[in-house]
């Protein structure tokens, strides 16, 4: 990097409006607020919704696999799963192959909730006036950034 580039970078490196991290943080907060009224109808938090989406796709998964998929540690995931179980949406059990492994599966109520949740992605798209291609490119960019940060 040239000295001129370094000087330019340093001149705004602590400027909040130039920070990618702040833009991502702000967008994430706004996304959470946009989801809230839709998820309140299902009595789910955003993280619970994320977990339910994984289970609607896979039906049965170990806690370790679930944590890897949603990028949450067991300290965050375990209480969340206990709350979903208390709501009657999931069943937590020991693996039949290895008693040390906890397996999460959908209850009948959890599976039935999927039908109600089908409207959420469309409702979210209606809140954002952006072309689908632009949203897909944004998603790919975020996924690439995540992969770089997890190296």
Descriptive terms for the model:
151 residues, mainly alpha, Arc Repressor Mutant, subunit A, three-stranded antiparallel beta sheet, 8 helices, globular
Topology (elements, then pairings):
Elements: H1 3-12, H2 20-40, H3 46-58, E1 60-62, H4 63-70, H5 74-86, E2 90-94, E3 102-106, H6 108-117, H7 120-127, H8 132-149
Antiparallel strand pairs: 1-3, 2-3
Tell me what you see in this structure.
The structure is a single chain. With 151 residues, the protein is mostly helical. It has a domain at 42-126: Winged helix-like DNA-binding domain superfamily/Winged helix DNA-binding domain (Arc Repressor Mutant, subunit A). The chain contains eight helices and three strands, in the order αααβααββααα. It has helices at 3-12, 20-40, 46-58, 63-70, 74-86, 108-117, 120-127, 132-149, and strands spanning 60-62, 90-94, 102-106. Strands 1-3-2 form a three-stranded antiparallel sheet. Strand 2 and strand 3 (102-106) form a beta hairpin. Helix 2 packs across helix 7 (120-127). It is globular. The protein starts with a helix and ends with a helix. 9% of the residues are buried.
């Amino acid at each position: 990097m040239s000295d001129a580039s370094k000087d330019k970078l340093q001149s705004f490196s602590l400027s909040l409006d130039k920070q990618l991290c702040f833009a991502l943080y702000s967008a994430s907060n706004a996304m959470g607020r946009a989801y809230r009224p839709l998820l309140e109808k299902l009595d789910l938090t955003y993280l619970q919704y994320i977990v339910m989406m994984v289970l609607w796709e896979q039906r049965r998964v170990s806690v370790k696999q679930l944590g890897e998929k949603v990028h949450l540690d067991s300290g965050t995931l375990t209480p969340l799963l206990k709350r979903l179980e208390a709501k009657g949406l999931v069943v937590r059990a020991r693996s039949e192959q290895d008693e040390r492994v906890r397996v999460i599966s959908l209850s009948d109520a959890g599976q039935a909730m999927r039908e109600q949740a089908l409207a959420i992605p469309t409702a979210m798209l209606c809140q954002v006036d952006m072309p689908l291609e632009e949203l897909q490119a944004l998603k790919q960019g975020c996924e690439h950034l995540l992969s770089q940060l997890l190296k």
